Hints:
Oligomer: single chain
Shape: globular
Low-confidence stretches: none
Largest sheet: 5 strands, antiparallel
Helix content: 10-25%
Number of helices: 1
Radius of gyration: 15 Å
Strand content: 35-45%
Number of strands: 8
Mean pLDDT: 87
CATH topology: PH-domain like
CATH superfamily: Pleckstrin-homology domain (PH domain)/Phosphotyrosine-binding domain (PTB)
Number of domains: 1
Amino acid sequence: MNIANSPSIPFTIPDINHGLKQANGLFKLWKGGLELEFEEKFLGVFDTSGVQTVRISYGDLQDIRYEKGWFSDNITFEGHSMKVFDEVPGTDIATCTLTVKKKNRKEARNLISQAQVQLSERKLDQLDEED
Length: 131
């Protein structure tokens, strides 16, 4: 899979700096991992960062989880190191959580399933290399 044919899923990272900022962006996959494209807004209105793009390789990820909620869902990425999500706002000790609206649930679940398969394949390849 490459970025050209990977769907983009809109997300938010709420409650940055105790609720003063929020990040809005798009999440998509590429062959080596995932890509987050986002911008931060102060009080939901004023753009404070410009559009930023962060790529995270599967090698830097420990786990990917999808949690269904009533009105929105959460996608949680756990990294092997605190440095993995240095450039992503609102992260917490090697963990990045994205909020996805209910209307994007189906596409988000499909994309996360693909990412989980890619991550599992990478882990299996690493086990094979150790033998």
